[in-house]
């Protein structure tokens, strides 16, 4: 059973405060979890509680959330069996009492929820992926490596937030990671030769100014080939447009021009015809359900259409999307919804409905590697956790290396099977 819960304010990868929670069980097991934080956050995400006291961290302190853990959430779950995750999470939700976790903060609640799961796993003497996923969890996800950062994650002129490389043709996760890292370094060399800045964005990808968004895709194609790989066969491409960030008053400001949803959709159709693109995330704004449905009907048989800001890992918003056929994939971020139980419920609903589910980091991360274990536990086949560089990103990839090693002969790398729609 849960004995005591403690919390502290630590720093995330952007140097902003975040919550870390520590759980002590009655059997002496101690576990901790740290909470990530987004920049291009969806309007419908669970509430991230920040102090707003401008004298500390520009208002971004989380002392209130830390106090909520110690004074409210801890007492609400102390004495409960840590293995009863659904009971624990229900108690956390009840202690908050609001619809979007705005009373005590989703950051406070998530820290407790994840730390309890880790403690329960340790107490059962199981690795986290096996504790959550059971004895059949054995599939290593394809890493969606974000090697060019734009949008709200960079200071550059590039509108699209993430340009990703996916080593779908590798034999193992270890090999996939190597291909990605090699391509990342070749890309850097190419950019240097072309006089482009190799400074980095928030997720460890390069953040150059470029003449167009297509120019970023062209750079990736060149880098993949120069690294000795075949685009599409060995390494495929994916985008997170994060289009809500440049959507205002009914239109998208893209490459300096005002575009309609229909303009954007035909742009994506052209991209899918020109590049080995397997996945496009948040192509349209977070409220444009109809536009999403039209785009999915048009190109959803060829490419994964991922709802991030659209679904915000929320089973209710996902249910609406399923009804409207708004997408065919969901991005899964634990802090968008705020408990492990609700996260797993969103994944289960997605997978039962023929949607893929992609475990994802946030642009503000920590050394916590829970999502690596979750990606294997839910057999999602895909993980989005940044460039193959910078420790807060690489921590997740390194954890997947450990899991693959631990699984030994039982390990299977998802590879192309994670993208049933991709024909390129
Ligand atoms: P965020 O970006 O963590 O800044 O929201 C990640 C994403 O949009 O997928
Ligand atoms: Zn996104």
Automatic annotation (TrEMBL):
Catalytic activities: (2R)-2-phosphoglycerate = phosphoenolpyruvate + H2O
Keyword Nucleus among UniProt keywords? no
**Domain (Enolase C-terminal TIM barrel) ranges:** 137-421
Question: Matching SMART domains, A to Z?
Answer: Enolase_C, Enolase_N
Can you quote the record's cofactor note? Answer: Mg(2+) is required for catalysis and for stabilizing the dimer. Binds a second Mg(2+) ion via substrate during catalysis.
A molecular-function term among this protein's GO annotations: magnesium ion binding
| Pfam families with a match to the protein in the record | Enolase_C, Enolase_N
Alphabetized, the UniProt keywords read: Cytoplasm, Glycolysis, Lyase, Magnesium, Metal-binding, Secreted
The residues the record assigns to binding (2R)-2-phosphoglycerate are 161, 333, 362-363, 384
What GO terms in the biological process aspect are recorded for it? Answer: glycolytic process
> Which Gene Ontology terms of cellular component type are present?
cell surface; extracellular region; phosphopyruvate hydratase complex
The residues that the entry says bind Mg(2+) are 240, 281, 308
Q: EC number(s) for this protein?
A: 4.2.1.11
| Compartments reported by the entry | Cytoplasm; Secreted; Cell surface
Q: Which SUPFAM superfamilies match?
A: Enolase C-terminal domain-like, Enolase N-terminal domain-like
Enolase N-terminal domain segment(s): 2-132
Q: Gene3D superfamilies attached here?
A: Enolase-like C-terminal domain, Enolase-like, N-terminal domain
The UniProt entry, under InterPro entries, shows:
Enolase, Enolase-like_C_sf, Enolase-like_N, Enolase_C, Enolase_CS, Enolase_N
Q: In which pathway does it act?
A: Carbohydrate degradation; glycolysis; pyruvate from D-glyceraldehyde 3-phosphate: step 4/5
Primary location group: cytoplasm
Q: Which cofactor does it need?
A: Mg(2+)
Q: What does this protein do?
A: Catalyzes the reversible conversion of 2-phosphoglycerate (2-PG) into phosphoenolpyruvate (PEP). It is essential for the degradation of carbohydrates via glycolysis.
PANTHER family on file: ENOLASE
Protein known as: Enolase
| Gene that encodes it | eno
């Amino acid at each position: 059973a849960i004995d005591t819960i403690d919390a502290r304010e630590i720093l995330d990868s952007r140097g902003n405060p975040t919550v870390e929670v520590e759980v002590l069980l009655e059997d002496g097991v101690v576990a901790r979890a740290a909470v990530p934080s987004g920049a291009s956050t969806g309007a419908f995400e669970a509430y991230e509680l920040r102090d707003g006291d401008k004298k500390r961290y520009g208002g971004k302190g989380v002392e209130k959330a830390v106090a909520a853990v110690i004074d409210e959430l801890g007492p609400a779950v102390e004495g409960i069996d840590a293995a009863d995750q659904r009971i624990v999470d229900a108690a956390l939700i009840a202690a908050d009492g609001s619809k979007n976790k705005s009373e005590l903060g989703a950051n406070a609640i998530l820290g407790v929820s994840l730390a309890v799961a880790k403690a329960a796993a340790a107490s059962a003497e199981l690795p986290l992926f096996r504790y959550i996923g059971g004895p059949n969890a054995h599939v290593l996800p394809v890493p969606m490596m974000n090697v060019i950062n734009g949008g709200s994650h960079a200071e550059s002129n590039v509108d699209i937030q993430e340009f990703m490389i996916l080593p779908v043709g590798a034999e193992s996760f270890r090999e996939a990671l190597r291909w990605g890292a090699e391509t990342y370094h070749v890309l850097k060399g190419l950019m240097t030769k072309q006089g482009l800045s190799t400074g980095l964005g928030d997720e460890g990808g390069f953040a150059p100014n470029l003449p167009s968004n297509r120019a970023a895709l062209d750079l990736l194609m060149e880098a993949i080939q120069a690294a000795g790989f075949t685009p599409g066969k060995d390494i495929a491409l994916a985008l997170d447009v994060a289009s809500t960030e440049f959507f205002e008053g009914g239109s998208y400001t893209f490459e300096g021009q005002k575009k309609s949803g229909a303009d954007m959709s035909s742009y994506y159709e052209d991209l899918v015809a020109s590049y080995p693109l397997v996945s496009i995330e948040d192509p349209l704004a977070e409220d444009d359900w109809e536009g999403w449905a039209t785009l999915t009907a048009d190109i959803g048989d060829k490419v994964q259409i991922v709802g991030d800001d659209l679904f915000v890992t929320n089973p209710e918003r996902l249910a609406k999307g399923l009804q409207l056929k708004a997408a065919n994939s969901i991005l899964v971020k634990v802090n968008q919804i705020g408990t492990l139980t609700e996260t797993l419920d969103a994944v289960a609903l997605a997978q039962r409905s023929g949607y893929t589910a992609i475990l994802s980091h946030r642009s503000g991360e920590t050394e916590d590697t829970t999502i690596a274990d979750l990606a294997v536990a839910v057999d999602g086949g895909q993980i989005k956790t940044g460039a193959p560089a910078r420790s807060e990103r690489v921590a997740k990839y390194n954890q997947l290396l450990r899991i693959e090693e631990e699984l030994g002969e039982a390990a299977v790398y998802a590879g192309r099977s994670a993208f049933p729609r991709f024909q390129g």
